[in-house]
Amino acid sequence: MNAEQLKQLETDLWSAADNLRANTGLKSSEYATPVLGLIFLKFADNKYRHAEADIVAEYQRLQGGRREKSLAEIAREKCGFYLPEQARYEHLLNLPGQEDIAKAIKLAMEAIEQYKPELEGVLPKEEYFSFNRTPESRTVLFDLVKSFSNIPLDASGDVFGKIYEFFLGKFALSEGQKGGEFFTPTSVVKLMVEIIEPHHGSVYDPACGSGGMFVQSQHFVQHRRGGSRTALTTAPPPPDNSLFVYGQEKTLDNLSSG
């Protein structure tokens, strides 16, 4: 996907989401978390699909032997997480019309957390029930699920990162002055990183929000090293050129969207 195609996709997705919001009665701040959660679900499903053939092949190869492992174990090794059936995006798309879509999304999030305890309490769940206020808003939630299914199956993590950042920026703008509480414009973060020049060592962000400082620090190091991937870690760095990033955030909604 080239830059022009990505820009068009971002515009189309935002237009669909923003038009649907008119039928929910939700404020932008209430609407943002459920929308960003659906983007996460689509990203997780895309990533799992790419690894699924290898996961199933390994599971079948080991089945019945001394080294037999569960599908979930193999998935975590090869993909980083396991998606049971109720957490698959296709499952949400194919729900019968009478099903409670908010409850189905909550169950999907809980299933992901069950097999990846590090995410426990992080993913949005109860927020989706705010769409149950009226029949119209319940329809909106399902329409949102359908809208994000338009993200191509071959979309990479970088593509999702840009879509996510695009939506964060749009929600921040719609919130006006308070929008800066959960999103700092990318141009501002880039300038800060250029001033800091984090070639190696540690970067600490006391108000990390959605992690923009960490992403731009990685981009800075990659660019300065001629495009090679840096060892961006979440553990204390060895005595080399690794870059260690860490931060904190007082607002739980901001932290959970990072």
**Rg over alpha carbons:** 20 Å
First and last CA, distance: 24 Å
Main beta sheet: strand number and arrangement?
Answer: 3 strands, parallel
**Alpha-beta classification:** mainly alpha
The succession of helices and strands, N to C, reads HHHHHHHHEHEEH
Helix content: 55-70%
Unreliable stretches: 227-238
* Count of individual beta strands: 3
Give me the number of helical elements: 10
| Proportion of strand residues | under 5%
Overall shape: globular
Look at the structure and give the mean pLDDT: 81
Biggest sheet, spatial arrangement of strands? 1-3-2
Protein name: site-specific DNA-methyltransferase (adenine-specific)
EC number: 2.1.1.72
Domain DNA methylase adenine-specific: 156-250
Keywords: Methyltransferase, Restriction system, S-adenosyl-L-methionine, Transferase
Describe the structure.
With 258 residues, this protein is mostly helical. It is 56% helix and 5% strand. It contains ten helices and three strands, in the order ααααααααβαββα. It has helices spanning 3-21, 28-62, 71-79, 89-93, 101-115, 135-148, 157-175, 186-196, 212-224, 252-256, and strands spanning 201-205, 232-233, 243-247. The protein has a three-stranded parallel beta sheet with strand order 1-3-2, with helices on one face. α1 (3-21) packs antiparallel against α6 and α8 (186-196) crosses α9 (212-224). The relative contact order is 0.12. The model is unreliable at 227-238 (pLDDT under 50).
